[in-house]
Amino acid sequence: MKRFGLISVPYLWLLALFLVPFLIVLKISLSDTALSIPPYTPTLDLSQGWAGIREWWAGLDMENFTWLTEDDLYWKAYLSSLKIAIISTVLTLMVGYPIAYGMSRAPDEWRPTLMMLIILPFWTSFLIRVYSWKAILSNEGLLNQLLMNLGIIQEPLIILNTNLAVYIGIVYTYLPFMVLPIYSALERLDESLLEAAEDLGCSRFTAFWLVTFPLSRQGIVAGSFLVFIPAMGEFVIPALLGGSKTLMIGKVLWEEFFSNRDWPVASAVAVVLLLLLIIPIVLFQRNEEKQREAEK
Amino acid sequence: MSDAATAPVSVFAPWEDAQAKPLIQFQNVTKRWGDFTAIDDLSIDIYTREFFALLGPSGCGKTTMMRMLAGFETPTEGTILIDGQNVAAIPPNKRAVNMMFQSYALFPHLSVAENIAFGLKRDKLPKDQISARVEEMLTLVQLNRFANRKPHQISGGQRQRVALARSLAKAPKLLLLDEPLGALDKKLRQDTQFELMDIQEKTGTTFVIVTHDQEEAMTVASRIAVMDHGQIIQVDTPSKIYEEPKSIYVADFIGDVNLIKGNVSRTGDGHATIAWAEGQPDLTGISHQDLPIGSAATLAVRPEKLSIYTSRPKDQANVIKGKVLDIAYLGNMSTYVIETPSGDLVKAQIANTRRIHRRQITWEDKVWLSFTETAGVVLDK
Predict the structure, then answer these.
(1) What is the per-residue pLDDT across B336-356, written as a single tens digit (0 to 9) for each?
(2) Smallest CA–CA separation between B99 and chain A, in Å?
(3) Does residue B153 sit at the A interface (CB-CB below 8 Å)?
(4) Of chain B residues 254-283, which have a CB less than 8 A from chain A?
(5) SS (H, E, C) B157-223
(6) Spatial separation of the C-alpha atoms in residues A99 and A115, rounded to whole Å
(7) Does B105 sit within 8 Å of A193, measured CB to CB?
(8) Is residue B3 over pLDDT 50?
(9) Per the CB < 8 Å rule, is B105 touching A211?
(10) Is A273 within 8 Å of A232 (Cβ atoms)?
(11) What is this model's ipTM?
């Protein structure tokens, strides 16, 4: 009984804060848009009793989901989001792995400081940090001023309001999520494994590819999912740094919701996004489980 | 009957042969880290097919010596020759030397067979040769059934054997073993020691083993180097190290020993005699040094070399009088601690060839201990 009480706490938490809101969104996605408050029908009218429930049920349909398949904006946005999420995950890995590797090789007394530097940006508001990239990347921004003063370029580089700016923003923002799991995998690596590899005829470089890299694989997978999943639904970064051509599902969702005031379609977009993300989330969980298994 | 059976058994002792060419030569090697001197002007020769043990307390420099042979450390001064070649410029991956690590350092993401094949694959051997060699190694360490297991799926003893097989797979000229049995329990360790000797004989590889366990070194090694503070105190066969230690440090480090302090009263004929206590006859032991009369010296004699009597023995060279202070029954033998009138304690170890109730010596009994002139050694340092 006591045990049941204990596990019911997280379950109640998930029920109240995840499942119930999801069911509400799901219900809205099955409704029709309407000029009313709230801006959709049907709404459940319990004062009419059983008949009210039946009428409400009859008003629900899959029309919005059909609509998502008919207008190519949506699947293009999903695909574009997928592409941007994958590319930025790869970029984050390419930037994050050397950082994590350097941290794990650093002298012991340096490590807490380096760890601090990785986490430090979190102490400032996410929005402000993304905004400040505007000041760096814009045509009159710090980067262009620097490059022009150095005489490297004559014309300012157009970075802001392109996909490149979105990649820079995502890599910058999600870097710690990539660095930390890889670092924790590399830090546990026994130094003598590398010596053994060298002893058996590997050069330093092949020892890295045959020993270090495969043994940090689980950290790489964990970090990649931690970047990919939120990047897929990212809204703030493409809205602030991306241009009109940057198509991401998060932005579409926002526009449906606030510009078009079409709650049912926006909800349908959200439900589909969630279903799409369940695949990588399940894969991520499986990776974590495998890791726990291996450590036993 | 073959000729080999009738021919006299030749003793393996290349270190006594002036013609023999050593496989490994340390020439005045010094290794320093800042102010700390790990290896101090050390010179030694190790020969092919030897099972050479580096024995000493932790921090004595034995692991540093081994790591210099593997190529993970370079000497600050001096040269190391392997097969007559200066190895200073050769990186670890280019040396015909393999090492078995103390932690075994098995690759956790590879199976037992893949671990053993790791070094062979680096040599770019053809696939069928690699698998044949892996199979051979698995048979050598009797792990064929576990070829596809991962290291975390096998026991500690099995892991140790995988590590050994992996380091032997490339048929190195020299195999280095860093505390190879440290992680095993006592029973398994003893079995594995014999297995190691067996494998060393079968493969004919030169083994250099680092250990702090003197019993292990005694069991496996053809020669032992006893080290302390970056220097080799004595290099000899196990029996010589045990029977004829050249210093008090070595006598004390290896096994149990009685150290009786006195002053030299007579020397000559390869022996020395010390006067050591009022009312006790002088004691004689072997001495190869020329000790001056009257100088301080110590007689080192092993407890098992002593006999115990209830009446004064007649024709024994060395006699010590005392009373029984303690008896420790160890099953196969008993240790008697005898207190002399001057308050010194001497240990005697007697094999229990009779059952316990048949023996007559008990606590507080007056007894005499005796040993021969060749049982102990007289040392000055």
Answers:
(1) 999 988 888 999 998 887 766
(2) 7
(3) no
(4) none
(5) HHHHHHHHHHHHCCCCCEEEEECCCCCCCHHHHHHHHHHHHHHHHHHCCEEEEEECCHHHHHHHCCE
(6) 10
(7) yes
(8) no
(9) no
(10) yes
(11) 0.80
Which of B94, B101, B137, B167 is the mutation pick for testing A, counting most A CBs within 10 A? B101
Question: Which residues in chain A have Cβ-Cβ distances shorter than 8 Å to B99?
Answer: 195-196, 199
8 Å CB contact of A294 and B91 = no
Rounded to 5 degrees, what are φ and ψ at B170? Answer: -85, 10
Chain A interface includes B125 (CB < 8 A)? no
Q: Which residue of A has its CA nearest to B170?
A: A200
Asked which of A115-119, A165-169, B236-240, B339-343 is least confident by mean pLDDT, the reply is B339-343
**Pairwise pLDDT comparison (A8 vs B315), residue with the higher score:** A8
> Given this model, what pLDDT does residue B214 score?
87
Report yes or no: B92 at the A interface, CB cutoff 8 Å.
yes
Instruction: Report whether pLDDT(B180) > 50.
Output: yes
Average pLDDT over residues A106-113: 92
Amino acid at B132: A
Written as one letter, the residue type at A43 is T
Report how far apart, in Å, the C-alpha atoms of A157 and of each of A160, A162, A170, B184 are.
9, 11, 19, 65
Instruction: Please write down the long-range contacts of B71-74, taking CB distance under 8 Å and 24 or more positions apart.
Output: B71/A199, B71/B95, B71/B97, B72/A195, B72/A198, B73/B31
* pTM strictly above 0.90: no
Q: Do B93 and A201 touch (CB under 8 A)?
A: yes
Tokens matching residue B101 = 């690590």
Q: Which residues of chain B lie closer than 8 angstroms to A217, CB-CB?
A: 109
